[in-house]
Amino acid sequence: MLSDLLLSLERGVAPLIALIALGFIWRKNPPGGLSVVDTRRTINALVLYLFYPGIAYDVISRAHFGLEVIWVPTSIWLGLLVAMGLGWLVFARPRALWGIAAPGVGALLIASSFGNILSMGIAVLQSLFGPDAARYAIYADVLGISILYWTLGAGTAAVLGAKEQSFHLGTFALTLLKMPPVWAFCAGLLVNLLAIPMPQWVSATAHLLGQAVVPSMLLTVGMSISLETVKRSPRMILAASAIKLIVMPALVAAVVLPLFGMTEVTQVMILLAGMPTMMATVLLSERFGLDTEILAAVMVVSTLGFFFTLPLMVVLLL
User: Fold this and answer.
1) 154 Cβ partners below 8 Å, 6+ apart?
2) Are 134 and 55 in contact (CB under 8 A)?
């Protein structure tokens, strides 16, 4: 039993740490004179427009759908909404005690609730449950995180941000619908449900593109780690990271385990709830004038802390 667990950790966690470490090394010593910011932006664009649509289509077009297509995104909604509510009680109500303005509160609310489903979630689930487990993370991302990101996340940032920008639900809904992964998800869903025959080269191309998602995103996680940002208000940053890494998965576990028992789907829901802060939250922060330094610090601490909480979750769940 112990040897199987250690082997699972070695196969599931060690490669993630190695890829993130390589990204961090790249940040410290950029090869070829390439700017880290430009490199990260280029990789993110490739993932958004090519790699992630590839894995979304590849996995969804051949997935065998069950109730997990409902329960997994629902668990994301539950955990995120409660985490943001808890963050409001911890950071917004006693704001004077923390010594932060509204943009700092907004950064903490978003950082403690939106998880890195895309890069970390897919990598962890594929490592622990096999390649087809990527479908869980895709359900959680497209039907859970993405919808809340462009509605609740954008609305929170608009209200608490320093920049005077109004939030229009229709505008952000249109932005969501224009996202290539959403179109790829819908295309794969139609091909699957309607049994539409597709040339073999389409599936092969999508599969090849999808294989690049995990290493690309993990490298950008490493490139984003800046330990300098952690020095600001460490207690506040640790509190936000604890909500994201500990409270959120514990809450989801308290709800789903009594209802469904210990199954692969419940294990997935708990693991996804405990992902570190989503990197794309920085985009909202910069667009609406939140405190990006605080948000980046939580992202760094939660990402580093994840490699302590992940083995613990694996021990308890698997």
Assistant:
1) 167, 172, 284, 288
2) yes
Nearest to 137 by CA among 150, 129, 125, 149: 125
How far apart (Å, rounded) are the C-alpha atoms in residues 299 and 306? 10
Structure tokens at 235: 């207690």
Pair 87, 240: CB distance under 8 Å: yes
Q: What is the pLDDT of residues 157-199, one digit of tens each?
A: 888 887 766 666 677 667 777 788 889 999 999 999 898 898 9
- Measured CA to CA in angstroms, residue 315 lies from 5, 8, 10, 246, 308 at distances of 7, 10, 13, 15, 11
Sketch out the chain's domains with CATH numbers: 2-317 (1.20.1530.20)
Query: Within 13 A of 79's CA, how many CA atoms are on the CB side?
Result: 34
Judge whether 172 and 150 are in contact, CB under 8 Å. Answer: yes
203 vs 209: CA distance, rounded Å? 10
DSSP symbol at 162:
S
Low-confidence stretches of the chain (pLDDT < 70) are 1-12, 164-169, 172-173, 229, 232
Cβ contact 147:19 at 8 Å: no
Taking the C-alpha atoms of residue 159 and residue 165, their distance in angstroms, rounded to an integer, is 8
How far apart, in whole angstroms, are the C-alpha atoms of residue 182 and residue 175?
Answer: 11
pTM above 0.90, yes or no: no
Residues 6+ apart with CB under 8 A from 246: 274, 309
Contact of 113 with 91, CB cutoff 8 Å: no
